[in-house]
Amino acid sequence: MKLYNTRTRETSEFKPLASGKVGIYVCGATVQSFPHIGHVRSGINFDILRRWLTVSGYNVTFIRNVTDIDDKILEKSKAENIPWWALAFKYEQEFQKAYALLNVLPPTYEPRATGHITQMIELMQLLIDKGAAYAPGNGDVYLDVRALDSYLTLSRQKLDDLLPAGDAEETYKKDVRDFALWKAAKTGEPSWPTPWGDGRPGWHLECSAMAHSYLGESFDIHGGGLDLIFPHHENEIAQSEAAGYKFANIWMHNAWVTQSGEKMSKSLGNTMQVKELIKQVRGIELRFYLGSAHYRSMLEFSPEALQEAATNFQRIENFLKRAKEIVGDFEGVISAPVKAAFDDDLAVPQVLAHISEALRRGNTAITENNHEQVKSSAAEIRGALAILGCDPFDASFTANAAGSADLSDALDGVIQLALAQRQSARERKDFAASDAIRDGLAALGITIEDTPQGQRWTIKGSI
Predict the structure, then answer these.
(1) pLDDT tens digit string along 235-294?
(2) Following CA atoms 209, 213, 217, 221 in sequence, which dihedral angle do they give, to the nearest 10 degrees?
(3) CA angle at 126 for the pair 125 and 129, rounded to the nearest 5°
(4) Are residues 194 and 326 part of one domain?
(5) How far apart are alpha carbons 10 and 2 in whole angstroms?
(6) Looking at the domain assignment, is residue 281 inside a domain?
(7) Count of CA atoms in the C-beta half-sphere (13 A) of 196
(8) From residue 218, how far is each of 16, 17, 163, 191, 204 by CA, in Å?
(9) How far apart are the first and last CA of the chain?
């Protein structure tokens, strides 16, 4: 298996630090708003990585943190007029719902920043003892970037080209580019006691402390969005390596979801919240769309692209359901081409091309009544979809999606009612009524087919 390492700018063979085991840390949400698809794309991309490593035989420890104390959280709590901790919990639950609806596997552990203050204090003390950090006496603690052996190895910027870090009032720094490990308490804000004064942690410190707590001084993969390369991940590397930790062996970053060429963000007013989009398409279809591009490629969002992806997934899903009617139950398999694609830095577009080819073979096999080929194609498709987290027969997905705004369930219920009425009309030989129901559904783009297993419906163009 080969993976791209942002730090080396190379794609190379993945070699775990410990045989048969993989440790992954992914930066999770700062829980201060409803999740949009820009947020959850990271969750889906790294969920695909985790699934593939697991299928490849590795025992994966997957850590995804929750940042539950932050400047943005404090600002938003004032705007909503609720305590900061209540706001953080409220939106943490919204993220959990979104991950479940999109079939993102729960992490092995999901630490909150506020639960690891002790570990952060220990890390700061170590950095001060090593001469890499300093406490100027006002309650702040800073990393001394000029004292580091190396810095900016991820983004490859030059130190003197950087803008000042933090706020203008931070006048206690040795260098304006020194960043805060700990921020002195302010009136009305939450704080915790430390040897250097009461305050709260800096964003970068939180992740280094939590990664070390759960994965040790070195681990295999650190992931997150492209926008985290600088300053967040760069500063994680700086403080962790200054403490003497080897830290992450490979750095992986997913690209953005864009809209009109711009990064999706609340500040641009172009966010697309998960809770709204699943009113338009099913969770499994939204996941299929968000996971369809290579993780390092930008994904340009449009309603038309989302609907096209949903239709494409329905075409695949309908084939699998038809195959099950014909050949009975079947398990997914990983074909050689699909394995090669996933092993090539998670080349999902190639995987989707193989799914399309298997779908073509499968539909031809249905026409030719070749049951063996139908089963073979269906098994290949299901195996690939399982890694993408989009297996329509996956019981865990069904359970996670329960209670979602799934319009397809309502549609299926209405159509089944119409089909029952059509069947009743046929049984009493009222063929005019039977044909009227069929023609009425056809006018809505719904095709009815009479099979030995009973009536079957599809949306026009779905197979």
Answers:
(1) 999 999 999 999 999 999 999 998 877 777 766 566 689 999 998 999 999 999 999 999
(2) -90
(3) 85
(4) no
(5) 10
(6) no
(7) 23
(8) 11, 8, 30, 30, 17
(9) 34
